[in-house]
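Running this now, will post back.
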Amino acid sequence: MPGPDQIVRLSDSEIKGLDPQKISDLASLRIAADQFEGLTRLNAAGEAEPGLAKGWSISEDGLRWTFPLREGLRFSDDVSIGAALFPRIWERLRAAETTSPTKALFDNIAAVTANGTSVVVTLQAPAPSLPVLLAHPAMAALPLHRITKRGEKWTSERPMVSSGPYQLATWQLNDHAQMIRNPEWHDEHIPTAKIIWKPMDDSLSAMRLILAGGADIAADYPASRHQWLNENHPGLAHSVPYLGSYYFAFNTRKAPFDDVRVRTALSMAVERAWIADKVIGTGNIPAWNLLPPDLTGGVSAKPAWTDWSRARRLAAAQKLLLEAGYGPDNPLKFEIRYNSSAEHRRVSVALAAMWKPLHVQARLFNSEAALHFAALRQHDFSLARSGWIADLPAAENFLTVHQSTNGAGNYSGYDNPTYDAVVAQAVATADPDKRNKLMRRADEILINDMPILPLYFYVTRSLVSKRIDGWKDNISNVHPSYTLRISAK
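Update: finished.
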């Protein structure tokens, strides 16, 4: 139960592991972020700030980043932390025997070296988002002195040796994990002595526990209760734009969706605001493009017909389909494929209904997630539910998915050399303004070609008790425990 010196947080799943370089699920990463700090860390707003480093400087070409360390850094067992530790952490992350599921996130890093009391990170291409990347627990200061001595058993020690604000004191599988203050942490006194993480994969049960006062924060709540919560418990529910785009992928490799006129016609007939508001109904933002607006300076790419009336859009769509050879005498027929979910089904039904005025006959087919995404990788679909949630708040994390060089991961089979070249140029550009301009240009090219059908941007759903201070809604859905405190009210 919550108390005067502890905060109870509900996670949507159980911890899968404790070694920060061997995990990728969100529940485990949250525990790791509470325990381990790197050169940088994420603050309450989800933004990167100096962590074990005092700050950073960047070379003119954007490829060499220097991070001078704070003085007197120590692990929780009083062992010192120096610059020479970070190249070893980098080597462990890359080692085949580590089998890190997040290794690919760091492929742009060419080298990590120590220069006196500073850590130098050399990149293969400019990456303004590097401070966010280095806040990932996989590149945090890990107690290699304990790992070398104990091997895989180092995560069994209680409390675990840590470099961040908290230490894992106890972990009872499927019940709770208790975090206590790290007495050697370099920063100011942590306001909350204990953090309790409890797994709860049923969002309705999590909501009921919060309402009963049995927990302070829940990582999710049922979408169907969004309006009820706002009406009956104002301020408790937080629905916030997230780093994710929800879309359907056209298979552009074969008819009928190898024709951009067909893809565009279907997109023009979709009522995105209605889907976001009525079908989903949790504050999602309608999307006509791939990139969430916050990633490139708050500007979104939109087709010219976005603001047309529905009648005008349907007329233009009908004309495009007729030009492509489809109409009352030759209706467009295809299958909408989606993975099992009430939400995906509702969206698919809505799409099929919106296309009926165009004499489109769309059948629905659903399968469980593993089979669904296997079909997408094997190009065995016509139109399929897809989407993307970014690992980092960086536009390239969205755009590179649709490059022709992305292989099976480029579900639609989109192949436009101009798009590929603009994305590559953007990635190689160090100047933030020029980089953002190129990223927006790539987004415009993509949406004009319409290999995907964007519908809305994801939101995160959280419940936060009124007794909690320090919570800040942000697009990355990052809420470090060290930033939270119990209200004095």
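The first strand starts at residue 6 and ends at 11. More later if anyone needs it.
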